[in-house]
Amino acid sequence: MMILMGFSISKVLIGILCVSLALILIYIGYKKLLAYLGKGTPSPNDYCVLYALEIEPAKGELEIYFTSAVPRTVAIEVLNDDLSLNTVIIEKEYSEGGHIIRFDSTSIPNGNYFYCLRSDNQKTMKKMRVQND
Prior knowledge:
- The protein is an alpha+beta fold.
- The chain has 2 domains: 35 residues; 87 residues, Immunoglobulin-like, CATH 2.60.40.1930.
- It is elongated.
- The relative contact order is 0.18.
C-alpha cells in the first residue's frame, strides 16, 4: 500500500466518504426541519396584497391597487395619522385578480394618512402623505 504523508489511500477514501455521508445527513435533516417549521404557514391565497402608491407625495386622484387570489369582500379605508377612521372609500365583493380603486385626495386636508385594506381575515395598511397644492 502506498503511504501519502502518513495516511494510506484507504484511510483517506474512508475519511472522504464519512465526511460526504455526514454532509448528506445534515442536508436531509435541514430539509426536514424546514418542512416541519413551515407547517401551518398561511397560504398566499388567504390574503390580499396591497401595493404602494405610485405618486409620492399623494395628490389629486389616487389609484389604490390590490390583488386577491380568490373572490372576497374587501373594504378600502383612509385612516388618520392616529389610525382613527377618516373615510371609507369602498366596501364590496371583488373577484380574483388585480383591482384599482380611485380616490380623490382633495377631499381630505394635507397631512399624513394611512390607506387600509380590510377583509374578513386581514387588515393591512400603507402610509401616504397627501400634499394637494
